[in-house]
Write a structure and sequence with these properties.
By secondary structure, the chain is an alpha+beta fold. The chain has helices at residues 16-27, 35-40, 92-106, 118-121, and strands at 7-10, 51-55, 58-70, 73-83, 111-115, 127-128, 134-135, 145-149, 160-164.
Length: 169
């Protein structure tokens, strides 16, 4: 199977069960205690900027984008990003990230943030944020908080609280 044999689609409600299964396989029950999940619980993800990969009609990978504010910056939180074990290490996750970043930039997002591994995400356009400058609800490693910024936004200049754009104060 080559990546060009896959179909990349905008997520819709028909993908929910498959995405839940893929995320359960990839992250297990521990996924619910992560700081990023606390942000995702504050409101819905953006279906227009969330994508799946399908192999012969089977949903085998997904990435979701949640609208956030990172301080005053209107952006998106990327994740979860997950690929079925049967399809790992084929570039599918990287392709989903590229698609999601392009869609976010086209939609006017100022930045896409995530908590992840710099060696994986740096080649995709993500840079470290300033440790301690951004907060999230719950513990996270500030050295793994990365941002892909658009326009004149600088990852090291981001500061403040990360929260869902729909969160009621």
């Amino acid at each position: 199977m080559l990546i060009q044999d896959l179909v990349f689609l905008t997520e819709d409600a028909s993908h929910d069960a498959a995405i839940m299964h893929i995320n359960e396989e990839a992250f297990g029950p521990g996924r619910f205690v992560r700081a990023a999940e606390r942000v995702r619980e504050q409101g819905p993800h953006d279906l227009r900027l969330s994508f799946v990969a399908a192999d012969r009609g089977e949903t085998i990978a997904s990435v979701r984008m949640t609208p956030i504010f990172a301080g005053a910056c209107a952006g998106h939180l990327l994740g979860p990003l997950a690929v079925r074990p049967s399809h790992k290490n084929r570039g599918i996750g990287r392709e989903l990230v590229r698609i999601a970043l392009a869609a976010a930039e086209n939609a006017g997002s100022q930045a896409v943030l995530l908590v992840g591994d710099p060696p994986y995400y740096s080649p995709l356009g993500f840079a470290r944020t300033r440790p301690g400058a951004l907060t999230m609800p719950g513990p996270f490693d500030p050295h793994r908080l990365l941002a892909a910024c658009f326009g004149d936004v600088d990852a090291m200049a981001l500061e403040g609280e990360i929260h869902h754009r729909d969160r009621k104060f």
